[in-house]
Design a protein that fits this description.
It is a single chain. By secondary structure, this protein is an alpha/beta fold. The chain folds into two domains: about 230 residues, Spore Coat Polysaccharide Biosynthesis Protein SpsA, Chain A; about 100 residues. The protein contains twelve helices and nine strands. Strands 3-2-1-4-7-5-8 form a seven-stranded mixed β-sheet, sandwiched between helices. A two-stranded parallel ribbon has the order 6-9. Strand 1, helix 1 and strand 2 form a beta-alpha-beta unit. It is elongated and about 80 Å long.
Length: about 350
């Protein structure tokens, strides 16, 4: 009995009302990915236009050498749900996430695949619309601004340096897929995916890609409201989706840093200091568990005994920095021990 061809690449494409772009997308796939070791998984996310009929006819194309799987969700459930469905039905060594709207170039997808396939150290590549000198067309200033702000916040929260967390073009090795558990059903899937990759200690490489925006009249679905919603997903991914020990350390460090902030300023200024120190404390809690965070608190406490007036504030700052340095050293010392979850 002949064995099935081994699938090296799975291309997952969510589709919702993309009747104007599917034929061109399919021709691009034939041009760049028409190999027997490739499977294309099209997930029809409850389309109400002619997309469903077009997708059915694609399987009749005699030119294709790749395997074509077509899946349908009866009710429009969101890009995230469609991607989850496609990923669960994939079998490739690599999984390429590709939008159907042609805002991103399939040629770039092929280049990213060649890069990750030829370098075993690379497990994850994100496309970036902001890195390359490639051709771009984009008139949506506010969407662009929100995307850049979100990427900046993500970098601060997760100690990364990613230029475009929202780019829909990504390729992952199956070892990455096996470690993550996606749960967001709408456009927040990009943040959900990126945060879980970072949490599992995979390095995210970036590759500059071309970008050709489309208008709402052409079927663009993401809006500035989705950009605002992504702030919620950033907060959720960083400050809620954690282990119980991390959440405890966030609460602990936020409380004592708020107390520290209460000693600065007067009136409204005092309230702003408390809020600022509370946020800063939550970030400390992300990086230091309760015991190592307690070292920071102890150093702050010691620093409060030195100097007078503004001199006390300076002393507290100096001892706070000293506490960070000591805690980082201790955290590193216990990193490979049975006590790592406490530091």
């Amino acid at each position: 009995m002949p064995q099935e061809n081994k699938v090296n690449l799975s291309i997952v494409i969510p589709v919702f009302n993309e009747e104007n772009f599917l034929d061109k997308l399919f021709n691009d796939l034939l041009k760049y990915f028409n190999n027997k070791d490739t499977e294309v998984i099209i997930v029809d996310d409850g389309s109400t236009d002619k997309s469903t009929d077009i997708i059915k006819n694609l399987n009749k194309n005699s030119e294709k050498n790749f395997q074509l799987k077509t899946l349908r969700l009866d009710i429009n459930s969101g890009k995230g749900k469609a991607l989850q469905t496609g990923i669960k039905n994939s079998s490739g060594e690599y999984i390429l996430l590709q939008d159907a709207d042609l805002e991103l170039d399939t040629k770039d997808s092929h280049e990213m695949y060649q890069m990750i396939k030829n370098n075993e150290e690379i497990k994850c590549i994100f496309g970036s619309r902001y890195l390359s000198g490639k051709l771009k067309k984009n008139n949506y200033f506010f969407n662009n601004l929100v995307g850049k702000i979100n990427s900046l916040i993500f970098n601060i929260f997760f100690s990364q340096s990613i230029s475009d967390v929202h780019c829909g073009l990504k390729i992952l090795h199956k070892s990455v897929i096996e470690k993550i558990n996606l749960s967001v059903n709408d456009f927040g899937i990009e943040i959900d995916l990126a945060s879980q990759i970072v949490r599992n200690n995979f390095f995210i490489y970036e590759f500059g890609v071309s970008y050709y925006f489309r208008t709402k009249a052409q079927g663009k679905k993401i809006t500035w409201l989705d950009g605002i919603k992504s702030f919620y997903y950033l907060i959720k991914a960083r400050f809620y989706d954690n282990s119980s020990s991390t959440n405890l350390s966030i609460l602990y460090s936020s409380i004592y840093m708020s107390y520290v902030g209460s000693h600065f300023g007067m009136g409204l200024g005092n309230s702003l200091f408390i809020i600022f120190f509370f946020i800063f404390g939550s970030i400390i809690g992300l990086h230091f568990k309760v015991l190592s965070s307690s070292i920071i608190l102890f150093c702050i406490f010691v620093g409060s005994f030195f100097g007078k007036g503004n001199g006390t504030s300076l002393s507290v700052l100096v001892f706070f920095i000293l506490g960070i340095i000591i805690s980082r050293y201790i955290k590193k010392y216990f990193a490979n021990s049975n006590f790592k979850n406490y530091f």
